Amino acid sequence: MQFDLNEEQSDIRDMVRRFTEQEITPHAESWDENYHFPREVYTKMAGLGLMGMTTPEEYGGSMLSRLEGALVYEELAKGEMATAVGLSVHNMITGSLARFGNEEQRQRWVARLAMGELLGAFSLSESGAGSDAASLQCRAELQNDSYVLNGNKLWVTNGGEADIYLVMARSKPGKAAGGISCFVVEKDTPGFSFGKTERKMGLHSSPTRELIFDNCAIPITNRIGEEGQGFKIALSSLDGGRVNIGAIAVGVAQAAFDTARQYARQRQQFGRPIAAFQGLQFLLADMAMKIEASRLLVYEAAYKLDTEQNARMYAAMAKCFATDTAMEVTTNAVQVLGGAGYVRDYPVERMMRDVKVAQIFEGTNQIQRIVIARALLGDLK
Ligand SMILES: Cc1cc2nc3c(=O)[nH]c(=O)nc-3n(C[C@H](O)[C@H](O)[C@H](O)COP(=O)(O)OP(=O)(O)OC[C@H]3O[C@@H](n4cnc5c(N)ncnc54)[C@H](O)[C@@H]3O)c2cc1C
Fold first, then answer.
1. Distance (Å, rounded) from C-alpha 102 to C-alpha 221?
2. What is the pLDDT of residue 2?
3. What CATH number did the domain enclosing 265 receive?
4. What is the DSSP letter of 24?
5. Ligand 1 atom index nearest CA of 206
6. How many CA atoms lie within 13 A of 198 on its CB side?
């Protein structure tokens, strides 16, 4: 076992660090203020191979390992969490299409997604089906050689901006997970429209939108995998997504910590830098310790995914621990800055607002604990 990055991993991290410093960090505040979705940055990320990170090279991807992916997300999130989240969702669906799609489907969509010509979104949740996602009710009825979709989906990251939507819908009535299938719906399909855009606490530059299907007919060739495989595809996509969210949380926490440490060394009260007070030293020491523990757990989960070893439990552990840590660290970073932390002159208030959702999406942290307990104890009825 060794704890240093190899040369290739360091190169990837350094490349994304430079990109973030030049293209993301300087704009993060204004994107947040103006709810601006920076599509142009996604085009630039495609130039670095970041839009096809889990896609084989023959389909235009860069096929990074999950560990290399974690380094990418951590660096991007230091600049701005929302863009890193949008990229993670895009890669989740690009990777799932490469993995579960047939050759014709890969040729049709994967290369264009990996090269950034198309943007992807992932749609599982509904108003009545959040944590209990398997109870979703959006219908997909087979009529001749088409599926006809009816129903609403909620909370879709990249919603409205994306060109390709990976949609889980019920092809068999009832409540069973085995009745769910997975479909690609393209943006301009008749009968497919967008509902409300959510007004959120944070993550302002990442649009979260409702999808509406009203007799939306899509060709049978848009079904990914077999009928009834949709929920399995969704869960498998989420394993990777959860490691990405863990890495993003590490990046946000690290950036908040760096701001707090620098501020604590400069700010003078009672004739001394506030960092000289043990009350703050212990706070900063705990923050650093928990960030490091999160990082190691995220890297381990990424490794487990790369080597296919009980990855679901590790992905849940990494997502849960790293996002709980990031919430604590960003909150404490605001505390270290005092009043300056509560206003927009420093990025820590945005980081605290942004990172809250990481404890909620891709399965809440209560659900992650259920996944971990089930892996440890079995499915107790
Ligand atoms: C900004 C944002 C972006 C999102 N992006 C996407 C996306 O791109 N695609 C997508 O499909 N979804 C997306 N989501 C949806 C997200 O995954 C859900 O919000 C999440 O799964 C929780 O579902 P819910 O909001 O319905 O909460 P609920 O399921 O109603 O949960 C409410 C509370 O009850 C708790 N709870 C529920 N069941 C249990 C249980 N069995 N034991 C203990 N506690 C429990 C939860 O942990 C939570 O605290 C997004 C959400 C947000 C806010």
1. 10
2. 85
3. 1.20.140.10
4. I
5. 1
6. 21
Which residue has a Cα nearest atom 45 of ligand 1?
366
* Global confidence as pTM: 0.97
**Residue 362 designated active-site:** yes
Final residue of a structural domain among 114, 132, 159? 114
Read off the amino acid at residue 30: S
Ligand 1 shell residues, CB under 6 Å: 89, 122-125, 130-131, 155-157, 200, 203, 208, 357, 360-364, 366-367
* Structure confidence by residue, pLDDT tens digits, 298-313: 999 999 999 988 899 9
Q: Is 2 a member of any domain?
A: no
The single residue listed with the structure tokens 């301009």 is 188
State the pLDDT confidence band at 29, using cuts at 50, 70 and 90.
very high
> Which residues have a Cβ under 8 Å from the Cβ of 105 and sit 6 or more positions away?
97, 184, 221, 224
Whole-angstrom distance, CA of residue 223 vs CA of residue 242: 24
Cα gap 206→95, rounded to integer Å: 20
> How does DSSP classify residue 267?
-
